[in-house]
TrEMBL record:
Entry protein name: GNAT family N-acetyltransferase
Sequence ranges assigned to domain N-acetyltransferase in this UniProt record: 18-153
Transmembrane region(s): none
Origin species: Candidatus Berkiella cookevillensis
Domain of life, source organism: Bacteria
UniProt-listed InterPro entries: Acyl_CoA_acyltransferase, GNAT_dom
Lineage: Bacteria, Pseudomonadati, Pseudomonadota, Gammaproteobacteria, Candidatus Berkiellales
């Protein structure tokens, strides 16, 4: 099986939708999310100061590849609350997921988990990827909970992989295999 050219689809749920990230999502509020230390404290994004230009460059890089880049939209408010990306390895039928809930009032309310499961289901069932992967720092409890609640399994732990606040921390690598393939 090979992954054909694609577009990022809209995935609907009563609580939120995943829509293709487009130019309308490139705004100062989005840039502010990436510069808010609490939002990126467990991400390598924490090492950069983000600008509208750097975000536009990232958007274009995602468009030019075979990757998926979703804006997470809250259904009842219509508000853009975060982003979810899937980096595609077409040769091995693997998608590596990353997520950010940027709007503080939507954190810890299950929207990240819901978006994660919607994307995983789409990629495993509709697109028939063989494997979904993700990684996070061992101190990122909310992300570890998403791994657990979405039935991902820990594949590996790389010891002292990152420096976080001058302390060495592990990276936890998780995966979910397509049960049909």
């Amino acid at each position: 099986m090979t992954i054909e050219a694609h577009f990022t689809p809209t995935i609907h749920h009563p609580k939120l939708s995943l829509v293709a990230f487009d130019k309308s999502h490139l705004c100062q509020r989005y840039v502010d999310w990436l510069n808010l230390k609490e939002n990126v404290q467990f991400s390598e994004l924490r090492h950069k100061t983000h600008t509208l230009e750097s975000c536009t460059n990232y958007f274009h890089s995602m468009q030019s590849g075979k990757h998926y880049f979703w804006a997470i939209m809250h259904q009842s408010s219509g508000q853009h609350i975060g982003n979810l990306s899937a980096y595609i390895d077409p040769h091995n039928l693997i998608a590596d997921l990353a997520i950010l809930i940027g709007e503080p009032e939507y954190k810890g309310k299950g929207y990240g988990l819901l978006a994660w499961i919607l994307a995983m289901d789409y990629l495993l069932v509709k697109k028939q990827f063989r494997k979904i992967t993700a990684g996070t720092m061992s101190i990122n409890t909310p992300m570890l909970q998403i791994f657990k609640k979405s039935d991902m399994r820990i594949e590996a732990v790389r010891q002292s992989h990152y420096l976080w606040n001058s302390k060495a921390v592990d990276i936890v690598l998780a995966a979910k295999f397509n049960p049909i393939l």
